[in-house]
Amino acid sequence: MPEFRIPFNRPCFAGNEQAYIAQAIAAGQISGDGLFTKQCRNLLEAELGVARALLTTSCTHALEMAALLLDIQPGDEVVVPSFTFVSTVNAFVLRGARPVFADVRPDTLNLDETRLAALLTPRTRAIVPVHYAGVGCEMDAIMAIAGRAGVPVVEDNAHGLFGKYRGRYLGTFGALATQSFHETKNFTCGEGGALLVNDPRYVERAEIIREKGTNRSRFFRGQVDKYTWVDVGSSYLPSDVLAAFLYAQLEKRAMIQAKRQSVWEYYDLSLRGRLERHGVSLPHVPAHCEQSYHMYYLLLPNLEERQALIAYLKARGILSVFHYLPLHLSDMGRQFGGQPGDCPVTEEMSDRLLRLPFYNDLAETDQADVVAAILSFYGEKEPETAWLPERQAVGG
Ligand SMILES: *Cc1c(COP(=O)(O)O)cnc(C)c1O
Predict the structure, then answer these.
(1) Of 7, 90, 314, 326, which one's alpha carbon is 20 to 30 angstroms from that of 71?
(2) Cβ neighbours for 295, distance < 8 A, ≥ 6 positions apart
(3) Does 227 fall in a domain?
(4) Which atom of ligand 1 is least distant from the CA of 184?
(5) Does residue 313 surpass a pLDDT of 50?
(6) Ligand 1 — pocket residues by CB below 6 A?
(7) Which of 7-16, 29-38, 210-219 bottoms out in mean pLDDT, i.e. has the lowest?
(8) Residue 388: its pLDDT value, please?
(9) How many A from CA of 270 to the centre of ligand 1?
(10) Which ligand 1 atom is at minimum distance from the Cα of 63?
């Protein structure tokens, strides 16, 4: 892989990662559900107000747990956006579900709630909205449609931890929600995730599925005097060493989010008003959404211009990336009947999206270099220093 002066992502350390890992090792428990797993769980449950927050080995695994909890059977239909990461759909396909691909809204790139009801059939067993870039989907409409149909909602909130929709945390609307702590997300332990359980009816079975189909959690709480095999399940709990790393990040959530907000606002204040005349669109965050500052992206006029800008930035040592090829047009998606034209907004927009370098410790000089390179690509003058927004000092 070529070295870039300004990479797209870089894992950042919040401060106490190594100390907490040493503590986990010294405590003598490095398997799952030790001290740090409990601290992560307590923090997430208290902050978000969810019935249960179960750490998992990934968001993919949390989604697989959701599919098991909802008893997804072969032939069941699951509505997912075509514009998402493969795991959103694969977790359900693993259980034999048939994906029904939804298009996205052109403004937020979130599942288009105005087209949702038409996709539901008597076989629909789940609706899986993704809060793209940590900007909330239209949850009022989605929950109303799902409620009328009696279909549970699973929020794929991989991007959106601590984002809010109408003042309420993302991940607290659906019966279930999933988080990712992969290296590329706002909070990380390398590979990790969480299943948020909002509907208390799923709590006990979620614990069992996560513990290889045993009632080990009840045993440790003293609710049964031996633990045994009671259901299907697998091993979805991460080592406490990883939870120690994650806790060091979650405890500094205010600092991490402030840093990310500062990067996002710098890009936005520097580029908005200067690129639109070149046919470039910038992210839209509705007034009732508090975003999680997961990413900053541009929508270029067309594929050729996007590839040209990627190459232009690359020549200056800056790595920008695109993502989400429409799932309904992938090899797997086509096996489920996906056809060009099924999701026109996704198809059109996927060719035009470009993500800018974005990580907690992205230096201000590097942010300025990215902006300067983009403006020079468009022949725009660089902003005067005096014009730049006041940079807030972000403390530890
Ligand atoms: C990153 C991501 C996932 C998968 O997360 P892992 O923790 O890597 O399994 C799922 N859905 C979305 C939308 C993602 O961005």
Answers:
(1) 326
(2) 133, 134, 159, 355, 356, 358
(3) yes
(4) 1
(5) yes
(6) 58-60, 84-85, 87-88, 130, 156, 158-159, 180, 182, 193
(7) 210-219
(8) 52
(9) 29
(10) 10
Name the nearest CA neighbour of 245 among 33, 28, 18, 23: 18
Which pLDDT tens digit goes with each residue over 363-390? 999 999 999 999 999 999 876 554 455 5
Average pLDDT for residues 257-263, to the nearest whole number?
A: 98
Residues 6+ away with beta carbon under 8 Å from 256: 12, 14, 186, 187, 249, 360
What confidence tens digit (pLDDT) does each residue in 104-157 have? 999 999 999 999 999 999 999 999 999 999 999 999 999 999 999 999 999 999
88 C-alpha to center of ligand 1: Å? 8
CATH code for position 283? 3.90.1150.10
Model pTM score: 0.95
What is the dihedral angle through the alpha carbons of 55, 56, 61, 67, rounded to the nearest 10 degrees?
A: -40
pLDDT tens per residue, range 211-251: 999 998 888 888 888 889 999 999 999 999 999 999 999 99
Domain-located, residue 191: yes
**Whether residues 246 and 257 fall in one domain:** no
Which of 58, 65, 84, 87 most suits a substitution to test ligand 1, by most atoms within 8 Å of the C-beta?
87
The CATH number of the domain holding residue 189 is 3.40.640.10
* Domain stops at, among 250, 274, 294: 250
Atom of ligand 1 nearest to the CA of 132: 13
In this structure, the answer to whether residues 167 and 143 fall within a common structural domain is yes
Pairwise CA distance, residues 381 & 384, whole Å: 9
Instruction: Kindly state whether residue 340 falls inside one of the protein's structural domains.
Output: yes
**How far is ligand 1, taken at its centre, from the CA of residue 374, in Å?**
28
Rounded to the nearest angstrom, the distance between the alpha carbon of 376 and the centre of ligand 1 is 34
Residue-level pLDDT at 124 = 98
Task: Answer yes or no: is pLDDT of 32 > 60.
Answer: yes
Kindly state whether residues 171 and 59 are assigned to the same domain: yes
- Closest protein CA for atom 6 of ligand 1: 59
Residue 298 domain boundaries: 253-387
> At which of 204, 227, 250 does a domain end?
250
Q: Do 160 and 82 share a domain, yes or no?
A: yes
Ramachandran bin of 162, using left for φ above 0, alpha for ψ from -120 to 50, beta for the remaining angles: left
Q: Which atom belonging to ligand 1 lies closest to the Cα atom of 159?
A: 15
Confidence of residue 396 (pLDDT cuts 50, 70, 90): very low
| Mean pLDDT estimate for the chain | 95
Nearest CA to ligand 1 atom 8: 182
- Same domain for 44 and 56? yes
In a domain, 65, yes or no: yes
User: Cα–Cα distance between 115 and 132 in angstroms, integer?
Assistant: 17
The reply to whether 61 and 207 lie within a common domain is: yes
Are residues 95 and 159 both part of a single domain?
A: yes
How many domains does the structure of the chain reveal?
Answer: 2
How far from the centroid of its chain's Cα atoms is residue 94's Cα? 20
Q: How far apart are CA 275 and CA 279, in angstroms?
A: 7
